[in-house]
Amino acid sequence: MSSESSMDWVETRCHRILDANLDRAREGLRILEEWCRFGLERADLSATCKALRQEVGSWHRPEFRQARDTTHDPGTSLSHPQERQRTDLNAVLLANCARVQEALRVIEEYGKLIEGDLSDRAKAMRYQIYVLESQLQSRDRLSRLRQARLYLVTSPHPRLLEVVEAALSAGLKLVQYRDKQQEDATRLETACRLAELCQRYGALFLVNDRVDLALACGADGVHLGQQDVPMDVARRILGPDRIVGRSTTSPEELARANAEGADYVGVGPIFATPTKPGKAAAGFDYLGYARQQAQQPFYAIGGIDVSNAAAVVAAGADRLAVVRAIMEAPDPKAATAELLQML
Ligand SMILES: Cc1ncc(COP(=O)(O)OP(=O)(O)O)c(N)n1
Ligand SMILES: Cc1nc(C(=O)O)sc1CCOP(=O)(O)O
Ligand SMILES: [Mg+2]
């Protein structure tokens, strides 16, 4: 083969690679765009995906398509089991973000042999996809939060992981690690183990009070009380894509939570509870007020169990947070299932 033809040979293969990866990037962006449009109904994110897809389309050149040779492509018969598996919607989004990022990385590398500008544009877009992935994860966290009707707030327990796993196995999708007494090193270790457990079950995991522990264990967010750090401090530390909730007991506290943009609020205590001794019940009156005034999902909390959950729902709660009803249940899995059934 002459040196000229070997150059042509390499160039033709690069065109083939660029053709495949330009198509791969556009296909992945289309899949993300469909969820943004029809799933999240987010015009802004849909427009972002559409613009990125159109830009990638503008990078195609006739010589790239002319180099296509699907008949002799050994990859068409290759498949990995993980490519067929999508455990949930989030897995679809993550898989297609990765598909676009990988395709852009290939275009960036092989584009250097063909056209430097193409390589530079692919690199710049790859960072835009990282941002889009965070936005989708954030939207995904908030959409998952809205879907979570039952919230387990843990209490200290000798078999804490076992109890939480039993509740997760019944379909629980929202857990908060709350332990006011434990030393930090132990709390961090426990938080990391709970975070891993919740991720395995596709559940959101938050930490009570402590933004530092939430950050350190990679939690999906933090729950702040009235005496905890301001919301903007928590968001500065955790980043804009994590969930921050706030306890409320009165219209004034709810107004503050609305004003600071809490992603959800606790509304309680509905009934006086030994889990939070010394705090007077806010009762159904405040629950009814919160139903009218809360600007985010709210979880009724305080003394709730299967004996009164129906009454709490009837008084205006769509979502419940419990401690003892699960943590002290003889059968946490059955208790969780029964509460979920009532919601
Ligand atoms: C969902 C939910 N609501 C309220 C609380 C109470 O938070 P806690 O830190 O236990 O008490 P305060 O800080 O609000 O006094 C919660 N943990 N979860
Ligand atoms: C952690 C907590 N916060 C409350 C609030 O009103 O902010 S009441 C509460 C304790 C809830 O425990 P149980 O489900 O065992 O009654
Ligand atoms: Mg607190």
TrEMBL record:
Superkingdom of the organism of origin:
Bacteria
Alphabetized UniProt keyword annotations:
Magnesium, Metal-binding, Thiamine biosynthesis, Transferase
Instruction: Give me the stretches of Basic and acidic residues compositional bias.
Output: 63-72
Quote the cofactor binding remark. Answer: Binds 1 Mg(2+) ion per subunit.
Q: Which SUPFAM superfamilies match?
A: Thiamin phosphate synthase (SSF51391)
**Domain ThiD2 residues, every copy:** 16-134
Q: Which cofactor does it need?
A: Mg(2+)
Gene3D superfamilies (alphabetical): Aldolase class I
Q: Which GO terms describe its cellular component?
A: cytoplasm
Q: What is this protein called?
A: Thiamine-phosphate synthase
Pfam families recorded for this chain? Answer: ThiD2, TMP-TENI
